[in-house]
Amino acid sequence: MKRLAVFAGYDKDNIIDDYVVYYIKELKKISDIIYVSDCNMSDNELKKINDYCIHIINGRHEEYDFGSYKRGYLYAKENNMLQNYDYLILCNDSCYGPLFDLENIINKMNDYNFGGISISKDLKIANHNYITSFFIYINKNIFNKDFFNNFIYDIKKEEDKMDIIKKYEFGLSKLMLDNNIELKGLFNDNGEFNRPYFNPLALIEEGYPFLKKHVLEKKVTVPLNIDELTNIIKIIKNNYDIKLIVNHLNRVADKEQIKYLFQKYKPYKKTFIHEKIFSLFTRYSPSGKYQTVYNFFNFLTISIDKPIKDSYIETDYKDFNFLLEI
């Protein structure tokens, strides 16, 4: 089996971080790689991955990962390369890993023999399932089709990141379904929403080879606690250098965030007084604050936020080096 990976990279400091170098080095074992940046990397940075890539495309385009996927795919197509490959991998640097042997994961994906398969599949959004876009494995019977080619050509800059998710992440999944292609995730949702963010421990216990950066990198509505994080580190540290995670986080994470890293409350709890009249639920909002939400007649909603400092357990951590002590 011959595989071609288009790897999308971005870094706010125009750096190819060591965790990315490791990912690309491991990816090279199972695939040829075209690396596409959405920033302006220096020649010295690009030298870190030169030996592992058959081609590098460098420069800010502001179309996010799908814009990088487009550029890598078009380069391969215009240079008559796609016909030489059985599978196309679309992947990016939004996660740490691979935490486990990537070849074993790919072999399992091959066994499914589906047209479009991702490392994970999520719950129904907009009335259909979708496959996550940070590692997509596509059969040549799909990536050589006109509908796929047209989808890639139509990718353009969007002003709102949600438009990117709707048009391209959800859109690619819907496109495949509309063309009678069954979607498959090697790791399925199990009735949970967005498991890579909201239940990473359970996934990693199943052998999931990636940890999403955002779980630790910044505040998102993730139910992270110290016990879960400890167990994640204990599982992966025999196969993955934890320093790659620590060094990256120490460079990019908001230092004030480290102080309030672990949530104090359960992430979501709902109480019905009467389903059609009144409900009360608590949750972590997208801003990271814990809030109580009152809903009246499924129409009027009132939310009250707790301050950040009251929403999280306060720690005395000054950096992420504490992960090395686990």
TrEMBL record:
A Pfam family (short name) is: RgpF
User: Which keywords does the record carry?
Assistant: Plasmid
Put simply, this protein is called Lipopolysaccharide biosynthesis protein-like protein
